[in-house]
Amino acid sequence: MAVIATGVLAAAALAWSLRIEAGDPWFYPATFILAAIYIVGSLVAVRLVGSRFRWHVSRRGIRDAVVGGGLLALVFFAGAFLVRFIPFLRDPVDELLDHARVGSLVFVLITTAVNGVAEEMFYRGALWRAVKPGYRMVVTTVLYTAVTALAGVPLLAFAAAALGVLVAVLRERTQSLTPPIIAHLIWSVSMLVVLPQVV
């Protein structure tokens, strides 16, 4: 029940935060509220079943996360060169990136990082544990993509699907939350810093 409630509240908060216009001071509180929903909901859900998150990981797991996150970022950089010539795909991305251009890049970086960790705690943490083994990779990726799609940015939904597959594979292979978080942060921060220049 805690997992479902967290997912619904987070979906509403995400849709709200990403529809706030660039430069609006409410953007930062909104994104931190979203992160808080994910983190608190995940901690409550895990505690209710008497479990804990697993953070320990091997060096190989960390290496795979760094390589995977970096390669995925490179793929999206290459795709961005094509997207800038397709208005219906470029314009929504441009509006989303305006938060970094118009607002404080430092604050946007912080909220991006915090939300990256929060999303992994929920999707590859609490939700992962709530789903039966064998279905976890598919269910968490599909739900993560579906919630992200509420933002109304087609490429963001596609990115969520690609990232969701990568972090789900890392979670399954390492049985730890650390590699998914590392890969997520490398990808999202790279997108935030480099993508505005490309698009």
UniProtKB/TrEMBL annotation:
Ranges that cross the membrane: 27-46, 66-87, 99-118, 138-169, 181-198
Keyword Transmembrane among record annotations: yes
Keyword Transmembrane helix: yes
Keywords: Membrane, Transmembrane, Transmembrane helix
Residues spanning the signal sequence: none
Pfam families, A to Z: Rce1-like (PF02517)
Residue ranges of domain CAAX prenyl protease 2/Lysostaphin resistance protein A-like in the record: 103-189
Protein name: CAAX prenyl protease 2/Lysostaphin resistance protein A-like domain-containing protein
